[in-house]
Amino acid sequence: MKKTVLMLTTAAVVLAACATPGKNTAIGAGAGAAVGAGAGAIIAKTTGGKAGQGAVWGAAAGVLLGGVVGNYFDKQAQDLAKVADVKKTANGLEITMKNDILFATGSSVLSAEAKKNIADMSKVLKKYPYNIIVVEGYTDSTGSVASNLSLSQKRAAAVQQEMLNNNVQTYSLTSVGYGVSNPIADNNTEAGRQANRRVNLNITANKELVEANYKG
């Protein structure tokens, strides 16, 4: 059965900043609508999967998640930052993978580099079995709306399948394509179109299971 993913945003205005595991965690402004502003600064460069290349980003406003759940996301962000750039959201974490690195133009076949990067991330994600991961595909506005929607769905599904191939077992792993929807940059420029061609890993969690089982 397909699950409906409801994307929520927050209007809270608490200043966000990274905290050490075990203390209150500042989670940046929510994914979705909040991604639009300042998007150029939060596009991830998952280009090599080499330790030390990643970073953790926090948006300017958000809510505080403390205790076990905050620790869970803090530690996961630190682990993922070894292989990817991570953005904290109101509900968890987000990784943005550039389609130019993942796929050839017009293709939904993953490159060898992309498979390596997904394998590196999968090693981390397997440590966090309470995650709810939605793989989201987006395109630029070149071509028809229908063809872009189909391509985005196929690309998101390809990333999802590669994660399954790497034995990522988590609470929920789904994929969805949004086509030209939700651009984060100007489609009238090449740089903007390149930014809009992306696959996001939107990571939240079953908080009840985290609180009951996560030991940190």
Detailed description of the structure:
The protein is α+β, with helices and mostly antiparallel strands and 216 residues long. The protein contains 6 helices and 9 strands. The longest helix is centred in the C-terminal third of the chain and has 21 residues. The chain is elongated, with a radius of gyration of 16 Å. The two termini are 32 Å apart.
Concise structural overview:
The chain has 216 residues and is of the alpha+beta class. It is 31% helix and 21% strand. It contains 6 helices and 9 strands.
Summary keywords:
single chain; about 220 residues; alpha+beta; six-stranded mixed sheet; three-stranded antiparallel sheet; 6 helices; about 30% helix; about 20% strand; disordered N terminus
Number of helical regions: 6
Could you give the count of β-strands? 9
* SSE string: EEEEHEEHHEHEHEH
Radius of gyration: 16 Å
Residues in β-strands, percent: 15-25%
Strands of the widest sheet, in order across it, are 3-5-6-9-7-8
Ranges with pLDDT <50 over ≥5 residues?
A: 1-52, 59-64
> What average pLDDT do the residues reach?
77
Largest sheet, in brief, is: 6 strands, mixed
Task: Quote the distance from N terminus to C terminus.
Answer: 32 Å
**Percent range of helical residues:** 25-40%
Structural class: alpha+beta
